[in-house]
C-alpha cells in the first residue's frame, strides 16, 4: 500500500496542487493538521482535500480558526493570520475543520498533529521527546507534523535514532516502531522552499515493514505570496516562503 503523508499545508493551495499532481498512484492520503492558518486559500485547500478523500487530523491553527483552540498562545503574526482565516472560512470549511479528530488510528498507523502525548501543542524536536512519546501510542507507526521539519525517529536496539528527511531520502522501516514527519507542504522551515511531503510504503506482502520516502516539489511561490499580500497577511509570513524558514 502506498500512503501519501502531508502536513502543515497552511492554506497554500499552489503548494498543495503541486504535491497533488505527483500523487496519482497512492492508495490513501493522510493529512496531519494545520490545514489552514498563515496562507491565503483556506476554503480552496479544504475543497481539494475533500476531493482527494484525505484522512485528516486537527492542528493548532485549525482549532484556532474555528474557535476551539486558544489563539493567545500564537505569536502576533500567526494570530493576525488566524483572525483573517476565521473571518474568511466558509460554512463547508468550518464544518470540515469542526469534525476533525485530534488522533486518528487505523491498522498500524496513528496520526496526530503535534505528538501522541499532546496532539495539538507538543513539538517533537528531539530523540528524547520522541522516546517519551512511544508509550503514548500503541500502533507500530505514528505520523506527526507541527515542526515543519521532515524526519524519522526510529527505535533501534532499544534506543531511538533520528534520520533527517532529506529530499529523495528513503528510510526503511523493519519491525521496530517509528515516528514519521513528512515536513510541511505549505510553509517549509528546513531552508528549502519547495513543498515537502512523503510517501509511505507499508503492509501488503511485507506486513509490518515498509519504507518512507521524502519528496520536494517546486510550486508557484509568487502566486501564494501575491494572494497573501492582497489579503493583508503579515509581511514576514509572506517573505519566509521564499527562504523556507
Ligand atoms: Zn504548522
| CATH fold-level label | Purple Acid Phosphatase, chain A, domain 2
Order of helices and strands: EHEHEHHHEEHEEEEEEEHH
Distance between the termini: 33 Å
How many H/I helical runs? 8
**Unreliably modeled segments:** none
Ligand roster: zinc ion
- What's the number of structural domains? 1
The strands making up the biggest β-sheet line up spatially as 3-2-1-11-12-9
Number of E strands: 12
CATH superfamily: Metallo-dependent phosphatases
Strand content: 25-35%
What is the overall pLDDT average?
Answer: 96
> Structural class of the secondary elements?
alpha/beta
- Report on the biggest sheet: 6 strands, mixed
Name the overall outline: globular
CATH class category name: Alpha Beta
- Helix content estimate: 25-40%
CATH architecture: 4-Layer Sandwich
Rg of Cα set? 17 Å
Structure description:
This protein has 245 residues and is an alpha/beta fold. Helices cover 29% and strands 25% of the residues. The protein is built from eight helices and twelve strands. It has a six-stranded mixed β-sheet. A six-stranded mixed β-sheet has the order 4-5-6-10-7-8, covered by helices on one side. Strand 1, helix 1 (13-20) and strand 2 (28-31) form a beta-alpha-beta unit. The model has no long low-confidence stretch (mean pLDDT 96). The chain binds zinc ion (ZN). The site of zinc ion (ZN) has 5 residues, from loops. Zinc ion (ZN) binds next to loops.
Amino acid at each position: 500500500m502506498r500512503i501519501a503523508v502531508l502536513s502543515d499545508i497552511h492554506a497554500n493551495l499552489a503548494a498543495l496542487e503541486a504535491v497533488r499532481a505527483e500523487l496519482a498512484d497512492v492508495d490513501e492520503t493522510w493529512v496531519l493538521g494545520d490545514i489552514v492558518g498563515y496562507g491565503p486559500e483556506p476554503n480552496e485547500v479544504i475543497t481539494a482535500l475533500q476531493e482527494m478523500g484525505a484522512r485528516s487530523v486537527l492542528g493548532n491553527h485549525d482549532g484556532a480558526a474555528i474557535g476551539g483552540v486558544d489563539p493567545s498562545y500564537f505569536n502576533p503574526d500567526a494570530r493576525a493570520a488566524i483572525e483573517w482565516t476565521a473571518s474568511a472560512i466558509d460554512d463547508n470549511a468550518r464544518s470540515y475543520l469542526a469534525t476533525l479528530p485530534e488522533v486518528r488510528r487505523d491498522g498500524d498507523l496513528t496520526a496526530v498533529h503535534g505528538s501522541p502525548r499532546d496532539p495539538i501543542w507538543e513539538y517533537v524536536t528531539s530523540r528524547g521527546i520522541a522516546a517519551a512519546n512511544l508509550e503514548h501510542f500503541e500502533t507500530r507507526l505514528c505520523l506527526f507534523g507541527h515542526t515543519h521539519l521532515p524526519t524519522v525517529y526510529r527505535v533501534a536496539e532499544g534506543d531511538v535514532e533520528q534520520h533527517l528527511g532529506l529530499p529523495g531520502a528513503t528510510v526503511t522501516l523493519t519491525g521496530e516502531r517509528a515516528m514519521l514527519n513528512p515536513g510541511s507542504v505549505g510553509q517549509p522551515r528546513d531552508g528549502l522552499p519547495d513543498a515537502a511531503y512523503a510517501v509511505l510504503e507499508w503492509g501488503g506482502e511485507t506486513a509490518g515493514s515498509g519504507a518512507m520516502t521524502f519528496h520536494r516539489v517546486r510550486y508557484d511561490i509568487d502566486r501564494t505570496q501575491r494572494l497573501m499580500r492582497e489579503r493583508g497577511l503579515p509581511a514576514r509570513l509572506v517573505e519566509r516562503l521564499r527562504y523556507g524558514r
